[in-house]
Write a structure and sequence with these properties.
With 382 residues, this protein is α+β, with helices and mostly antiparallel strands. It folds into 3 domains: 108 residues, Butyryl-Coa Dehydrogenase, subunit A, domain 1 (Orthogonal Bundle); 113 residues, Butyryl-CoA Dehydrogenase, subunit A, domain 2; 147 residues, Butyryl-CoA Dehydrogenase, subunit A, domain 3, CATH 1.20.140.10. Helix content is 51%, strand content 15%. It has a 4-stranded mixed beta sheet with strand order 1-4-5-8, covered by helices on one side. A 4-stranded antiparallel beta sheet has the order 2-3-7-6, with no helix packed on it. A two-stranded antiparallel sheet has the order 9-10. Helix 5 packs antiparallel against helix 7, helix 7 packs antiparallel against helix 8 and helix 7 packs parallel to helix 9.
Length: 382
C-alpha cells in the first residue's frame, strides 16, 4: 500500500495553491468575514474550468473521474487558505447522486455541477442534532393524500420539514433532502427555487463556512426526484456523510498547518528579552507538539480517504478518527497562533483569529470529537 501522492496529484496540489494564493489571499478572506458574502460565481466558474467541482464526477458526465484521494488534495489546500467555496458540499451531493441516482438522474444533474453552473448540497441534520434515521422528521407524503395537492400528478410527493445547518444552502441551486417515507428514509433532489422552499442563512462563528436553515412547506416534487428506492437511502447517506467527514478533516488539517506556519514565522521575528521568542523552550516545544498532532491527523485523513474508496468496512471508523484528531489539532493550533502573536493576535487586523474561528466552528460540525471517539468504540465492539 503506497501512501505517497502521485506526480499528477502533486501537480494538482500546486495548481490549487497558485489559484488560491492569487484569488483568495487571507487579506481578502479577512475583508469578507466582516459580513456574509454571496458566492463568487465567477471564481467558482473558474475553478470548474480547472475541474474542481467535477473532480469526482465521471468523465461521461463532464468530470475528471478521479477519487476521494484526489479530492482531499484540493480540500487540504483550500483549508490552508480558509477558502469559502462550496466544494465539500457539492462533492457530497455528487457522491449521493452517483450512489443512488439512475443514469437519467445523473445525466440530468452531474454535467451542470461539473461545469460550475450548478451548486449542490446535502440536507440531513434536523432539530434533534443527530445523524440517525430515527432523527429524520421531514416527511415525504404521497401528493394525492397531502393537502393542496389537487394538481399533483400520480406518484408525486410533497415534502414538509425543516433542515438545519445545511452547508452552503444559501448558495445552492440543488438541495438533496433526506425525508421519511413509510418505508424508511429517502433522498430527494429539490431545486432551491422550488415553490415552498425557504432558505434562511444562519449566523455562524466562521463566515467562511456558511450554513443555512432550509424550510420545506408543501414542496411538491415528481416521483423522478427521488434517488433510489423508496425508504432505502440511509445506508448510502451514511457513506456519503463519512466521505464528507474525511473531506472536512482534510480542510481542518490544512487550516491547522497554516495556523502553525503563521505562528512559527511570527515567533522568529517577535522579540522578548532581546531574543526571538522562537528560541524559548515554552514556545518551540509547543510548536513541535502541534506539528506532531497535525501530522498524526493528516495520516488519519489520508488513510480515511483511501478507505472510502478501497475499504468501505473501515471507512466509518477512520472518518471518525480523522475528524476527532483534526478537530483537536486545529483547535490547539488556532489558539496557540493567537497566543504566540500576543496582544496583536486579538486584533481584527491579525489573521490569527480567522483560524481560531475555523477551529471553533469545525469542532462541532459533523460531530464533536467525543461523539466520534464513542462512535469508533461502538464500531469496534459491533
Amino acid at each position: 500500500m503506497d501512501f505517497g501522492f502521485t506526480q499528477e496529484q502533486e501537480q494538482l496540489r500546486a495548481q490549487v495553491r497558485r489559484l488560491l494564493d492569487t484569488e483568495l489571499p487571507l487579506a481578502r478572506i479577512l475583508a469578507g468575514s466582516a459580513r456574509p458574502q454571496p458566492l463568487d460565481r465567477a471564481l467558482w466558474k473558474r475553478t470548474a474550468e480547472l475541474g474542481w467541482p467535477g473532480i469526482t464526477v465521471p468523465e461521461a458526465h463532464g468530470g475528471l473521474g478521479l477519487g476521494c484521494e484526489d479530492l482531499i488534495v484540493v480540500l487540504e489546500e483550500m483549508g490552508k487558505s480558509l477558502c469559502p467555496l462550496p466544494l465539500l458540499a457539492t462533492d457530497a451531493a455528487v457522491a449521493a447522486l452517483r450512489a443512488l441516482g439512475t443514469d437519467a438522474q445523473c445525466a440530468a444533474h452531474l454535467p451542470a455541477i461539473a461545469a460550475g453552473a450548478c451548486v449542490a448540497t446535502l440536507a440531513v441534520l434536523e432539530e434533534s442534532d443527530l445523524l440517525a434515521p430515527d432523527a429524520i422528521a421531514t416527511r415525504a407524503s404521497a401528493a394525492g393524500v397531502a393537502a393542496a395537492s389537487a394538481a399533483a400528478a400520480p406518484g408525486d410527493v410533497v415534502l414538509d420539514g425543516v433542515k438545519l445547518f445545511v452547508p452552503d444552502a444559501q448558495h445552492a441551486d440543488l438541495i438533496l433532502v433526506a425525508a421519511r417515507e413509510d418505508a424508511g428514509v429517502s433522498l430527494f433532489v429539490v431545486p432551491a427555487d422550488a415553490p415552498g422552499v425557504r432558505v434562511t442563512p444562519l449566523v455562524v462563528v466562521d463566515t467562511t463556512k456558511p450554513a443555512a436553515e432550509v424550510c420545506l412547506e408543501a414542496v411538491r416534487l415528481p416521483a423522478s426526484a427521488r434517488l433510489g428506492a423508496p425508504g432505502g437511502a440511509w445506508p448510502a447517506i451514511m457513506r456519503v456523510l463519512d466521505r464528507m467527514t474525511v473531506g472536512l478533516a482534510a480542510e481542518m488539517v490544512g487550516a491547522a498547518d497554516a495556523a502553525l506556519a503563521m505562528a512559527v514565522e511570527y515567533a522568529k521575528v517577535r522579540r522578548q528579552f532581546g531574543s526571538p521568542i522562537g528560541r524559548f523552550q515554552g514556545v518551540k516545544h509547543r510548536c513541535a507538539e502541534l506539528l506532531v498532532d497535525i501530522e498524526s491527523a493528516r495520516s488519519l485523513v489520508y488513510y480515511g480517504a483511501w478507505a472510502v474508496e478501497h475499504d468501505p468496512a473501515q471507512a466509518a471508523s477512520y472518518a471518525s478518527m480523522a475528524k476527532a484528531a483534526a478537530a483537536d489539532a486545529l483547535d490547539a493550533a488556532g489558539e496557540e497562533c493567537i497566543q504566540i502573536h500576543g496582544a496583536i493576535g486579538y486584533t481584527w487586523e491579525c489573521h490569527a483569529h480567522l483560524f481560531y474561528k475555523r477551529g471553533r466552528h469545525c469542532h462541532v460540525w459533523m460531530g464533536a470529537p467525543d461523539e466520534h471517539y464513542e462512535r469508533v468504540l461502538a464500531l469496534q465492539e459491533a
